[in-house]
Amino acid sequence: MFARLISLFLLLTTLVSAIHPVMAQNPFAPSKPETKEEENQESPRFMMKNFIEILNNSEVDTAFRYVEFPRGISLDARRAIIGDLIEVLNKRGNIDLPKISNNPSGDLSDNTDPNLETIGTIVLGKNSIPVVLRYSEDKNRKGWRFSIEFMEQIPLIAAALHSSGLESKLPPKLIQHGMFGVKLWQWIGLLIVIGLSILSSLILASGLLLMMRWISSRLKVVVPSDILTSFVTPLRLFAGILVFSYLCELYETSQPLKVPQPFPST
C-alpha cells in the first residue's frame, strides 16, 4: 500500500512540474482589454501573413508574385529557387509575425535603405541570415517582396541543409534512399539514438537503485524492496528522456551548417 502511495506521489509531482509554467500565468486573472490593430494590406506584415499560407501549402506558382528573382534565370530555375525558399523557411525560418511592421513603409529603423525591411532570420546552427524584403513596383504588382540579395543566398542555404560533413563520408545509397522524406542514414541514426537511450536508462536506473539500497544500509534504515523497485520505472523513464534529448542535441550540434556567402550583386 505504501509503495502505491509513493508511486502516486511521484506521478503527481511530475504532473505539477509539467503544468507549473502554465499555472504561473494565472489564466483566470483579469486580463487587460486588448485593442485589435487593423491590418494594413500594404504593410510587410500583411505580405508575410499571406505568404505563410503559401508555405503551409507549398504553392510554388502562387509564390512568384512575392519574390524578386535574379535577372537572366529561366522559369525552371525560378521554380527551383522558390521550392528552396519554401523548404528553407519551413525548416529554419525564425519569423515572428506580430513583430513585423504594420506600416506600409515598414520599420524605418531596421535598415538604412527605407525600401528594405528585415522581418526575421534563417537559423543556421549558431549563425543566422536576415530575411529581407524590398518594396518594389513593376507593371504587374507593387508591394513588399523577398529581395534579390536574400533570394541569391537561398540555393546555398538549401544545399547546406541537404548535406553535411557526415554525408560526404557515407555510401551514396544511404544518402539517396529514404522514407517519408527522411534519408536512410538518418533513420539508422535515430534507431541508434533510441537504442542508446534505452540502454543508458537501464544502467542509470539500476545504478541509482543500488545507491539507494547502499544508503539505506549505511543509515541502518529498513526499506521494503517493493518501495525501492517502485522507483525503477519513473527513474528509467526520466533517465531515458534526458539521455535521448542530450544525444539528439549532440547529434544536431555535431553537424554544423556553414553560413553561405551571398553572390556578388550585378
Task: Please give a quick description of this structure.
The chain has 266 residues and is of the alpha+beta class. The chain has eight helices and six strands, in the order αααββββααββααα.
Fill in the keyword field for this structure.
266 residues; alpha+beta; 2 domains; 4-stranded antiparallel beta sheet; two-stranded antiparallel ribbon; 8 helices; 6 strands; disordered N terminus; disordered C terminus
Structural account:
This protein is an alpha+beta fold and 266 residues long. It folds into two domains: 44-162, no CATH class; 164-266, no CATH class. The protein is 52% helix and 12% strand. It is elongated and about 85 Å long.
What would you report as the Rg, rounded to the nearest angstrom? 26 Å
SSE class? alpha+beta
What is the chains' assembly state?
single chain
Could you tell me how far the N terminus lies from the C terminus, measured between alpha carbons in angstroms? 78 Å
Which strand order spans the largest sheet, edge to edge or round the barrel?
1-2-3-4
| Major β-sheet profile | 4 strands, antiparallel
Please estimate the helix content.
40-55%
